[in-house]
Amino acid sequence: MNNAPTNNRSLAEIVAEMKEELRQFVQTRLEMFKRELQEKVARLKIAGPLAGAAVLLLATAYLLITMALVAAVAAALEKSPYHWFFGFIIVGFVWALLGGAAGYFAKRELELKTLAPERTLEVLKGDKVWLQREVKNQI
After folding, report:
1. What is the pLDDT of residue 114?
2. Domain region containing 43
3. Taking 50 as the threshold, does the pLDDT of residue 53 lie above it?
4. What share of the chain is helix, strand, coil (3-state, %, to 5)?
5. Number of domains forming the structure of the chain
6. CA distances from 16 to 61, 93, 120, 127 (A)
7. Per-residue confidence band for 6, with pLDDT thresholds at 50, 70 and 90
């Protein structure tokens, strides 16, 4: 004989309850994702215009400093008929080295950090493990 307690709920009621729980589960996860995405977008909205102003001002400073360095190198090589040419080549080479190093470090930093919604992904991974355990326990 089956000694399991009887539950007077119909299959339709059980399926409806499972459907509602799944809907709430998905809705909660979507809300978490939306909130985390909104936080990141809000930061980008603030940082964007500031970054634009920084780029403009730094580009102006870069051009002025580059011209001053080229003039200084050209003045040091005053006796050469190609002193301006050598000034541009030397300063250009130095900027290329510095730019390459900056690009390398930027690439490394972007590989380490991601814009993915990390908290949401962690919660979903935990949910996956929990769901797998529940399925094993039910079978």
Report:
1. 67
2. 14-138
3. yes
4. 85, 0, 15
5. 1
6. 66, 70, 27, 21
7. low
Q: Distance between CA atoms of 1 and 24, rounded to whole angstroms?
A: 37
pLDDT for residue 7: 65
Residue-averaged pLDDT of the chain: 86
**Per the structure block, which two tokens stand in for 56?**
């403009």
0.85 cut: is pTM over it?
A: no
33 belongs to a structural domain? yes
